[in-house]
Amino acid sequence: MFRDAVLVLGKDLRIEARSRVVTNQIAPFALLVLLLFAFALDPDSGVLARATAGLFWIAVLFSAILALQRAFGIEATDANRDGLRLSGLDPVGIFFGKCGAVALQLIALEVLLFLGVIVLYGTEVSGPGLLVLTALAATAGVAAAGSVYGVLAAGLRVRETLIPLLLLPVVAPVLIAATRAFEAALDGQTSEGWPWVGLLVGFAVVYLILGTFAFGPLLEET
User: CA–CA separation, 14 vs 158, rounded Å?
Assistant: First the structure.
């Protein structure tokens, strides 16, 4: 299973390295979202500073939708999904490989976006340990949930619009918990952020377990 996961992860990352969709399209889109928020909110009133954590995670979720559409869209052409089913790879390995590839891309985007909020919003970094663990737990949850709903919508013609409709309501707890944890870290009140990290870890564990059992049947059905 782990060997298959590494194979799928490597395949997706090589495809991304050659196509550069994340670097040429998704990353500029995410930075543009941050820039538009900066224009829409008055930085002089302090609203932008107070909303930094929420705006950051909204940009991350929008980017995650594009990354997931890309991750499952690359197998929608030339019967690639049929080849994946017939390859003999363990479905659990495929699930974890997909999750890992999406998560690594999201982590890279989060680093870029965090640098963006520092430059654009004047955010001061505090509580780095809480920030890092929040980002890792939230990313794992989004990648796992996105992989489950991504394979569910992958075989449909309306997958580009269906993935956001399926995913955004589900990851609302991730948005809330990650925002609260980031707010606590940036305010220097790290003790208030750890319970939210626990919620993020629980969400990630639930969807990793769900994907372990459901990904194979969903892949066969779609």
Answer: 26
Question: Which residue intervals of 122-171 are DSSP H helices?
Answer: 128-153, 159-170
| Residue 21 near residue 106 (C-beta atoms within 8 A) | no
Say what the pTM is: 0.90
Best CA proximity match to 114, nearest among 104, 103, 101, 128: 128
DSSP H helix total and E strand total for the chain: 11, 0
Domain ranges (residues) in the chain = 2-221
What is the chain's pLDDT, residue by residue, as a tens digit (222 residues)? 888 888 888 888 888 888 888 888 888 998 898 888 888 877 665 778 788 899 999 999 999 998 888 887 777 665 666 667 667 788 888 899 989 999 999 999 999 999 988 888 888 888 889 999 999 999 999 999 998 888 887 766 666 678 888 888 999 999 999 999 999 998 888 889 999 999 999 999 999 999 999 888 887 776
